[in-house]
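User: Second chain of the day. Same drill as before.
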Amino acid sequence: MKKHNILIIEDNIDTAKNIKLYVEYNGFNSDVVHCGLVGVKAFISGSYDLVIIDRMLPGLNGLEVCKKIRITSNVPIIMLTAKISDHDLVEGLSAGADEYVKKPYSNKELIARIKAHFRRSESLNPSSSNKDSHYSVGNYVLNKNTCTIEFNKQDLLLTKTEYLILEKLISAPKQVFTREQLFLTAFDATHESIDRTIDVHMHNLRNKIAKIDKDKSHGIKSIYGVGYKLDLL
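Assistant: Same format as last time:
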């Protein structure tokens, strides 16, 4: 079985060594770089299945690194941070991170989150074609075999987290999903800031759709105090 490759972008040498040790102990390959610009170059020249980025990096910070990776890739990104405010969370997720892990964290927690991302990635890659995996709802066309969603005949360039959330809404139009239900669709376990995490991912989703949604027909509705639903006329 092919080993997953992980890129670790962390300026603290001891922290980076520690992450690398635990990552490789759990059966993954890893490369470490210590600044943002080198991290971007390493990602472009390499082949990685997941990226761990420290938010506070010298030169090009973690947010900017994340944005540059997102230009060409939907690879899962875990952002590490000592910053814990709502504003910081929104900034990190808006830059394209899939999730935030707040320092201090346990190595077991970080490994659990890495494994969860790979489990979800594997579940999105069926071994054989299924005729029921390709269907349309309103202006959306969902193809589970290629893990893509089109809107108005244009491919939405979604992260895996965004794909899983939108797939859930498309699977049951008009059904209201709580934020926790949507969170557990994209992540394996609950943690702090569920509401803000889902709200930011939904904001990012709507922004991507808005670029090709001239008549505002996306149908994603916010249900105050509960969550979201897809309600297409």
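The chain has a mean pLDDT of 87.

User: Great, on to the next one.
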